[in-house]
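batch job 7 of whatever, protein = Metallophosphoesterase
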Amino acid sequence: MSLQFRFAVVSDLHVALPHTIWEHPNRFHLVEVSIPALEIILAHLEQLNLDFLLIPGDLTQHGEPENHAWLTERLAQLPFPTYVVPGNHDVPTPMPDGTSIGWADFPTYYHKFGYEDTSRMYYTCELLPGVRLIGLNSNQFDAQGKQTGYLDEQQLNWLSHVLAEIEPDELVLVMLHHNVVEHLPNQSQHPLGRRYMLDNAPTLLQMLQDAGVQLVFTGHLHVQDIAQHQGIYEITTGSLVSYPHPYRVLQFHRDRQGRQWLQVESHRVDAVPDWPQLQQASRQWMGDRSHPFMLKLLTQPPLNLPPEEAEILLPSLRYFWAKIADGDALFDFSHFPLAAQQYFESFSATNRWGSPALIDNHSTLLLRTKQAKSSSKPV
């Protein structure tokens, strides 16, 4: 059966009405551009005859009721359906605290955007005939009330039943906030990277692999990256309020012979009112605030450099994270000591043979059919 549809992904909106914006000297996100940038994106998407829009979490600055209310009202005006999942910023506390909504509130705000059953934080729905979306809640609270990325047992049991009922020719898209596949070297083990990973990612990956699911959409990391694990592609999309202010438009094709592929295009917001040179200003903003993060990266495992040695390398790393966020980064740190050179160059967008593999922004992903179990690979 042939199948073709087009959709978009916009992630980590961090929507903040002007009167709710937190003024903090070290604020990393340009939340003041959230609404004007979103309006520019939506104006573009409304011209494309989309079938649907996916938003994988961090819809608001920090769970403010008025920001959730503004967003739901705006999304309801779109000519195509939108589906969301919560991010860690959307429900920062289990119970309402006067400034943020609570756990049980989220589905009631977004009952028109996937959560027809408002009694739980996850859902499944038919997007189109033969196309199913599974929206998962990867945000949990431990016994001390600290947020963590995890799928609890109840949700996993529910997911197991949903996956067992997938029709043979049904295409399944999975969306959640936390990363399931590593997008950075050793991400699941590094103290700075693992907070963006799902703690029980191996369990979810095995369930998806057993069910033949191949496409997962995430956010949280604020980078443009496409990663693959044993035939599963995870497409994570950078943040609306962080350089390079990206969004994606994707086209799925399946021909009558059962061959199927996903075309990925990425776009940028170049300017908004009051920020006419948004790309340049935002990159500079990120570079100006990179020092503490890069110092940790240098002084923590695996490099463990003394602070005085780390300080020597920091000027060359000022825009390191901006290049990562932009996607398809290629690095040359041949002037660094060997261990540091090898470490930072390992973040380059290369394949196992060291050749450039620039698939993070514009690519065609070949997907296996239900019958053919050949390995997937980007073109």
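notes: Confidence is low (pLDDT under 50) at residues 372-379.
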